[in-house]
Amino acid sequence: MTDSAPHSHMPSPMEGKVVLITGGNSGIGKAAALSLSRMGADLVLLCRNREKAEAARSEIRSSSGRGAELIVADMLIQREVRRAASEFLSTSSRLDVLLNNAGSDFTSYEETEDGIERTMALNYFSQFLFTNLLLDELKKSAPSRIVNVSSVAHYGAKLDFASINGKGRMGTGGLGAYARSKLALNLFTFELARRLQGSGVTANCLHPGGVRTNIWSHAGAFAPIAMLGSLFMLSPEAGAKTSVYLASSPEVEGVTGMYFEKCKPKEPSAESRDGAEAAKLWEVSERMTGFIAPRTPP
Ligand SMILES: NC(=O)c1ccc[n+]([C@@H]2O[C@H](COP(=O)([O-])OP(=O)(O)OC[C@H]3O[C@@H](n4cnc5c(N)ncnc54)[C@H](OP(=O)(O)O)[C@@H]3O)[C@@H](O)[C@H]2O)c1
Prior knowledge:
The protein has helices at residues 27-38, 50-64, 78-91, 118-140, 175-195, 223-229, 236-239, 241-248, 275-289, and strands spanning 18-22, 42-47, 68-72, 97-100, 144-149, 201-207, 259-261, 264-266. The chain is 40% helix and 13% strand. α4 runs parallel beside α5 (175-195). Mean pLDDT is 91; it is low at 1-8. By secondary structure, the chain is an alpha/beta fold. The termini are far apart. The chain binds NADP nicotinamide-adenine-dinucleotide phosphate (NAP). NADP nicotinamide-adenine-dinucleotide phosphate is lined by residues 23, 25-29, 47-49, 52, 74-76, 101-104, 122, 149, 151, 207-208, 210-211, 213-215.
């Protein structure tokens, strides 16, 4: 073969990598799944609905020619999160990328069986628990990556430790709870990055942009405005770009503890960078999920 002859096979950086995506059946998560599958990744999709999960798997297969493993679990419920993590660990032998994408905003107040307001439970506490349960697998597979889908909504939010489980604290139409859940996710990401220094596992978070997805259909009283606004929003494919970049690009190999937008680092809110708040949140989260991280000797 001469130098000018085309390469028969250019391996993709994702060939043979196991990527676990939560909420991979819809919106940004599905668009990221399609893209990463076309790059050669071995996908595992965690979805709460078997039928929707199967539909996403068929779409992925026809787009990339590759299959995907499915885990069906409701991430609002901590025992389901634990079962999903065990199911993954019993069937997979490595984990290269954990894309914590599942999320929602609830406009009415209801508590989960764990006694936590739903937005806070789904967007933060379940991510804390799920990620920690998979941490050893990520360490074993290092270099590996944790990518958390946060939101620009975190700017301006403040945590209230007196009601961290969200009791009686929905805020305007649920947006207050949503903003706090994403601030908590940022604090968690940066604390994780600190704890994972030297392990080869990176942790970053991102804002995907304003993206036309199902999330806007449950915006309660804001739904009509949101649906109208969605005409000007990004497509799910465009909205998945930063998730895909953080999951796969060699450019961010080793980059950790950062917040990204449009595939570029951006300064998150000052509250997101408060190390004392992050440490306190970690302690509270351990208590509320029953997951106690192993203590490193002083
Ligand atoms: N769209 C935006 O403009 C925007 C902006 C900033 C941040 N985000 C974030 O982007 C992420 C993806 O949202 P999206 O916009 O793509 O919305 P979406 O289309 O509604 O996707 C959300 C995904 O999460 C899943 N999910 C919801 N509740 C779940 C549960 N209890 N257990 C397991 N999975 C659950 C959904 O499953 P079902 O299909 O079964 O509901 C769906 O697959 C979220 O974290 C969201 O906060 C979105």
